[in-house]
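Build the 3D complex.
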Amino acid sequence: MTKKKILVVEDEAELIGAIQIRLEQAGYEVLTASDGQEALEKARTENPDLIVLDLMLPKIDGYKVCRMLKFDEKYKKIPVVMLTARAQEKDENLGYEVGANAFITKPFKYQVLLAKIAELLGGSVFKPL
Amino acid sequence: MRLRFKIRYKLAFIFCLPALLLICVGEIIASFWGYPPLGYILLFSAIMFAFLLAMAFISGGILVKSIKKLHRATEEIASGNLDCRLNIQSGDEMEQLADSFNDMIVAIKEKRGPIEERPATLGKAAPGRYQKILQTSAKATLNVLEDLVKVEDDLELSQQSFHSIVEESTDAIIIVDRNGFVRYVNPAAETIFERMKEDWMGHLFGTPLNHERREIDISRLKGGRGTGEMTVTETTWLGEKADLVTVHDITERKIAEEKLIKLDQLKTDFVSTVSHELRTPLTIMKEYASIISDELPGKLNPGQRKYLSIIEGNIDRLSQIIEDLLDISRIDAQKVVLKREFVDLASIINDVVTQFKPKTDGKQIEFKTVFPASLPPLYIDADRIRQVFTNLIGNAIKFTPPNGKIIAEIIGKEMEFECRVTDTGIGIAAENLDKVFTRFEQFDRTEGSGAKGTGLGLAITKALIQLHHGRIWVESALNEGSKFIFTLPKYTPATLLQEHVMNSMKEAAISASAMTLFNISLADPSKLKEEFSQERLDSILKEIEGLLRKSLRGRGDIVLRNSHGLLYFLVNCDKENALKVESRLRQKLSDYLVGQGLAEKVKLHFGRATYPDDATSAEELMKKARPGVDPSKA
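Done.
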């Protein structure tokens, strides 16, 4: 079984590093992007199985990235997990409105992130070590 | 008297003159005819002269007597006595005069008839009386005049005071006539509006006048703006109806108020921004610490593990402080929206107890939970109530010495559930009891183990309970322990539906928008019960509920399910959009039923009613939303 490909979009390089370690440890292949534009390019060229998307991004913000992908027939099936430090009701609503499949607020437990990813990829639910 | 003598002398003079003339002529004739003895002539002349003088005196006396009578009568008449008559029977011109005089009096009396009826005193008044009357009336007139002068002085005085009150008032006073034109302004109006009297008078006031105290914008002639509090009362101005407008300058108060609001907003924004900014580095620290702790980069020795756990503990503490600050700023900004659902409260408490188990075990604290035999699901925000229990139980553990006891219990009451967290800890002194729920209030609880908190926990807890329409209080005695008690209202799906419908209607009314109540039910439930088990039917309804929630998510809509297999949900949309929503949902649900192979057996009934188009009361709306009821006809 080939490894599932996950695109992690986050402008904090160190946070990407931490998420990458956890995802790779859980058996995923990880691609990274540090701004909205790069995220769109990588999503289109690499066609990942899932995208972990931060909302406050340079160039194009997370909401826009998500909406652009969800309006595109080719990419609308890619599940999007939104990751944000903004934990307000309206942010979450806006996230769902632009087509996000899950919404996780920082600081998050990596177990929660892994469980959400596993659920959305339809595979076996991740069980912590 | 003078009159009588005068006339007598005159008459004597008139009689004497011809007598002397006659004597002189007699003397001349006598001298011609030879003089008789001079003594005779002189004697004769003297006798003649004396006789004539006497005649003149007597006839003058008679004449004077008549005139005197006439004079008296005239005086009588002048005094108002028209009844007097002249009685002269001399048979000469005097008698004629007297008759004419009497006729005149009769004629006057006839003409003045009505006046005769005046008070007798006046009619009988003598000339002296006239003078008296005149004196009295002159005196009275003088008094009136004096009073008038005094009144005028008073008037001037009060006008002056009135003038100074109006002119020196710090509030603008403006008289506006019924056509909206300014008729008067006081100096304060000139100052407040920075507009000279000439720029006011005869100009339109401009601001609409209604008889309610309200705030108005003051736009000054030279630019610049202010705020005034305007009061309008009806008055009369120079005999015409007009409006009396007073404007109290509240510009400075307003500026101060706005500054305060801005400052408060700034504080809330600051707390929110800083907290968010802190979250990212904190997340990174937490992630790497947990990676090290999980020994992904390599094995840890006991020392490293111990110090790492201290780091992790303090990261958690910092996270908690940030979460508390964010919660308080959200509560202050009224941004906390509860996501309430029917949930099992007992399992929430059990979760929290399990979470704290390492701590209670470490301190040898006995932990007990007491729940009612049958506990229906409570309509609460599970995360928020978990937060409340975490807070209360966490505090109880912190302030209870080793070998103590903590009890968490739920007690069912008629209208609500009562939750209690009781400990055998250090307790709270009576004087501190009312400070417990105040933010940043940390009184002397040094005996408590563990790190200090933010002093926000119980303030947040109270706010969360209040958001749930509950109450919270504490009973405690020093060194005996504390008991925190809070209530949560009991909801049945029916009361809840009513509450939601009423709230949604209120919101729609405020925003002048529409709101639609949908109702979906299983068709032919008795037949379905033969076909499926109750559990299966429940799970189907639950699935449908989930589908509804998912497709309505993010629009502030609410889905409720009751035991009769009815689903209600509220959507903030008008009649036209409601139709679109319904067809979309019909499609989704039919897809689901087909997918599950249930399409043949399970049929759904749809009903809906829109406020304000179909109904204006909650009862009516719920009645008309029943499936099979046409809302426009029902």
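The mean pLDDT of chain A is 83.
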